[in-house]
Amino acid sequence: MKRARTTRAAAILLGPFFVLFTVAMVVPIGYAVWLSLFTEKQSGLGFGGTETVFSGLDNYTAALGDRAFREGFGVLLGYCLFYIPLLLIGALALALLLDSTLARARRFFQLALFLPHAVPGIIAALIWVYLYTPQLSPVVSAMESGGIGFDFFSPEGALPSIVNIALWEWLGYNMVIFYAALQAIDRSVLEAATVDGAGAWRTALSIKVPLIRSSLVMVALFTVIGSLQLFTEPLILNKGTGSAVSSTWTPNMYAYTAAFERNDYGLAAAASILLALTAALLSFVVTRFTGRKGKKA
Hints:
By secondary structure, the chain is mainly alpha-helical. 74% of the residues lie in helices and 3% in strands.
């Protein structure tokens, strides 16, 4: 009787979550999978109306066979290799500095570093497009007056430009997560390390960082997933700037272009599913790798 009551209570409490999860996640994913299996074709030598026909895996093979889609994953690979280490190391370093006994005005620096995250991604991208544009940007003018010439919209400069925007948006946010984890560490452990003669560097690297490992894993996992969804920043740079960022620069942009410019919703759905599978695979790899490292530690 007690077990049945507990089961009923759990079902009542968890029911709203599963309903929302089904409506917001399961149904859209299922619809995307179904949509990816169909394509629209015109009948009557192009003079008749369009009809939706079952195409099986043709949309998937079309996406994988498209060079632009494959190159988008290459861009994501370069972005992840460049962005993720800078974000994790930078956020962790800032959190350790704020947590150190030498830090002053902690509240001010926490707020100052977190504020860029409060700016919507589109607005942040527009701000940086202005700062990247020659003849408009004081940053570019200062660089040119110092003899530094760099085209932020060139093929070589587009990726660093977008990485810079993403760092500006997310560095402070992840710093706050790391700082909160550091504040939760038992101070007696740190005092014991100081009594044993451990310096600030040794305490930070050998005690603090291992103790917040779960936060590091969580941030790394979310950063990998977020990096694969790169869309807003390159889309803004693509619009009216003459930059090297094309309309299919990332897989997300490829799906957006297929859906809303070419009206090929089956291809867009297939590209989205392939990107989602890639994100799931990388998430699995990150969790397994960090799990093994944790067991060894």
